[in-house]
Design a protein that fits this description.
Length: about 190
C-alpha cells in the first residue's frame, strides 16, 4: 500500500520484487509502476517493479495469449533474467515451475516470445539478488520520470535535461541530473 496525498494505492508486487524490498528495509524505496485498466477490468491494477527493464519484460510477458497482469504477477516468482533465459532456451520445464503456468501455457510463452528475450536473458547474473545494473543512457530514465511520473510535457522535459547538461557537462548519473534540473528551475 502506497500513501500519497492522503490516498492509498494498492500496488501488486511480483515475489522477487517483494523479496528485494524486504532486504532493503530502512532504505528509500522506489518502484516503476505498470498501470492496467480495461473495459473488462475497470478497476485499475498497479504493479510495481525495481527497474524499467523489469517493467518492459512484464509488458512483453502479458502479450502472450492467456496471460493477464494478475496471472503474470503470480508467475514472476524468480528474476526476469532466468525466465527470459528459459524462454530463449525453449526450456518449457523451467517455465512450468512458475506459479500458474502449465505445459500448454509454457509452450505459448515460448512460441510468442522466443527471439525477443535475449536482452533480458543476457542481463541475468543468475543470482537474482543484486542491484539493478546502472543504465548507461541515464538521461532516458530521467526523461521517463519527468514525463510519466512528474507530469512534464515531453518537449519541456527534454529541454530541462538539455539545459542541465549544458550547465554541468560532468553529470554522470540520474541523481546528479535531477539535482541540476531542479537547481536550474529554482535558480
Amino acid at each position: 500500500m502506497i500513501l500519497a496525498g492522503g490516498v492509498g494505492y494498492e500496488v501488486l508486487l511480483p515475489a522477487y520484487v517483494s523479496i528485494a524490498m524486504t532486504e532493503g528495509i530502512g532504505d528509500g524505496t522506489s518502484l516503476y509502476i505498470y498501470y492496467h485498466q480495461t473495459e473488462k477490468q475497470p478497476k485499475p491494477v498497479l504493479i510495481g517493479f525495481n527497474s524499467l527493464e523489469e517493467r518492459e519484460f512484464f509488458e512483453r510477458f502479458i502479450s502472450v495469449e492467456a496471460i493477464g497482469p494478475i496471472k503474470a504477477v503470480s508467475a514472476l516468482c524468480i528474476p526476469i533474467g532466468e525466465i527470459a533465459a528459459a524462454i530463449e532456451n525453449k526450456d518449457s520445464g523451467a517455465l512450468r515451475k512458475l506459479k500458474g503456468i502449465g505445459a500448454r501455457t509454457a509452450e505459448k510463452i515460448i512460441a510468442t516470445l522466443r527471439g525477443k528475450m535475449a536482452g533480458f536473458a543476457a542481463a541475468s547474473t543468475g543470482t537474482g539478488a543484486g542491484p539493478a545494473p546502472v543504465e548507461e543512457n541515464y538521461h532516458l530514465l530521467v526523461l521517463d520520470v519527468l514525463v510519466n511520473q512528474l507530469g512534464h510535457k515531453g518537449a519541456e522535459a527534454k529541454d530541462l535535461i538539455n539545459q542541465a547538461l549544458k550547465r554541468n557537462p560532468g553529470i554522470s548519473g540520474p541523481e546528479e541530473l535531477f539535482d541540476e534540473i531542479y537547481r536550474g528551475e529554482t535558480g
